[in-house]
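Entry:
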Amino acid sequence: MNLLYKYVCLLLLLFSFSGKAQVNLDSLWSSWVDSTKKDTNRLKAIYDFTWDGYLSTQPDSAFYFAQLQYDFAKSVNNELWKAKALRLQGLSLSGNKNELENPLEYFQKALTIFKKIEHHGYISKCLLDIAKLYSVENNFQKTIEFRQQALTYEIKKGNNTTVAHLYSHIGDLFNSEGELEAALDYYQKCLVLRKEIGNKNELAISYNTIGNVYLDLGN
């Protein structure tokens, strides 16, 4: 009886979440098609609708809705939302194994606009998107290059948590290639920031990682 009760509760909970998600998507779509709303509100609505409703589950549909966003942003001369739409299309292509188009093209177009309007946050995101593409292709040099570029922008923003993660990730890349001294340099930089941030769990991970590199170096 207890098992049946738990099962029914779980089903009700899942239906509840599903219903709430659908209501939210319906609301976002209503905002998007409402021509009385501000352009930026409509653009945010179609962006959230695409991201929340389709990007991870239906990449073809996500690409289509992102194109709607791009076309409208272009018609109202909104560069930021044009670039966001292009990035969405790049992400949708990245998640679609059957897609023949190259997501890199969309990321690069988005990156050009983000640089033009000097939006450092999205410049960094686009650079990391591109780095991920090269990582999947096992292109070590390009992966490092674009992660380092993203690191530069995150340092400018002063986002120490993200900077520390990037130091760690770049260290991992060098480590995987057997370039232990370079890896150690990035791990040490990560350690310094994590001491400042004070996250003990991540600090412990850094100490452990550095210890392993010294072990591999025979020290």
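Residues 5-20 have pLDDT under 50 and may be disordered.
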